Each structure stands twice: as structure tokens, then as C-alpha cells.
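Hi, here's the filled form for the chain we discussed.

Project: internal
Contact: R.S.
Residues: 76
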Amino acid sequence: MAKRPPIGNRVRELRDQHGAMTQAQLGEAIGVTRQTVIAIEQGRYSPSLESAFRIARLFDVGLEDVFSWNADLDDA
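And the returned structure, exactly as it came back:
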């Protein structure tokens, strides 16, 4: 089984707070596929730095308001 990245996120919560934006709409807005958005939300994939910034800017929040480092998963 693949190791989970130690990065948590609030992407789904932010989508819900911004007019129930769909995963497809978010993907289109930041230039990735819906499947990539799903993987990011589920914590199976860490976005590129560029995509992370695009998400934060789209929701008009800071990067650390979207993503967090989970130290417990760092050594897992």
C-alpha cells in the first residue's frame, strides 16, 4: 500500500463554502482533472506548489488555510 502524504487539506470544505463548487469546476479553474481534485481531497495526492497556490487564490485564503502538515504521518 502506498504511503499517504503528510499533508491535510480543507479543499472540500472550501468548495462547499463557495457556492457548492463541483470537483470538476475546481479542476477546470486550477488546470487539473476532476480525478486529481478527488485524490487531493482524499489525501492520496499532494498537489504541486503551483496548484496549491491556485487553490488558495481561488478561495481567497492563505496557503496554510487550505493545507496543513500532519506530523503524525511524516514518519509513518
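Let me know if anything looks off before we file it.
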